[in-house]
Design brief:
The protein is mainly α. The protein contains nine helices and no strands.
Length: 149
């Protein structure tokens, strides 16, 4: 009998085959599916499937995987869950067009982090963005500035 942590280890192993990763992408535990989303050997069609997973941790892992196709990243940039969009903003390999869209996100945490990443990746693009109200006075903002979904 295979214990779940063996599946967890297998899902993160770069030697795991694409077929095995596809099978593990259907695992009942979202922690195992998240590891599949993190694995750089995961086939793009499996990453596409995991980008619609019910658990935001799985979708966020797909967004952080540098092998994720751009159309999947674009889908994740519109994700309803704040944590998924926020995790994308920490990805320095994210296309600038997607980072720019996230820099205009309605959530101040997402937009601030996207701008910060843009400054690291391509600083000359950031001044073109219009300032957000909470950025004019530094990094402090009130709960009234934050929109929850």
């Amino acid at each position: 009998m295979v214990i779940w942590h063996e599946h967890y280890i297998q899902a993160g192993d770069p030697a795991t085959t694409g077929d095995e990763l596809a099978t593990l992408a259907d695992h009942e535990l979202h922690e195992v599916r998240r590891r599949v989303g993190e694995n750089h050997q995961t086939p793009s069609e499996v990453l596409q499937k995991l980008a619609s997973d019910e658990h935001p941790e799985v979708r966020a892992a797909v967004g952080e995987n540098h092998m994720t196709p751009q159309e999947v990243l674009e889908q994740l940039a519109c994700d309803e869950h704040l944590d998924v969009r926020y995790s994308l903003t920490e990805n320095c390999n994210l296309p600038l067009a997607i980072l720019s869209r996230l820099a205009e996100d309605e959530n101040p945490y997402v937009s601030h982090r996207a701008r910060r990443t843009m400054r690291m990746v391509k600083p000359e693009t950031v001044p073109e963005l219009r300032p957000r109200p909470y950025e004019q006075g530094g990094d402090s903002y009130t709960m009234r500035d934050i929109k929850f979904r």
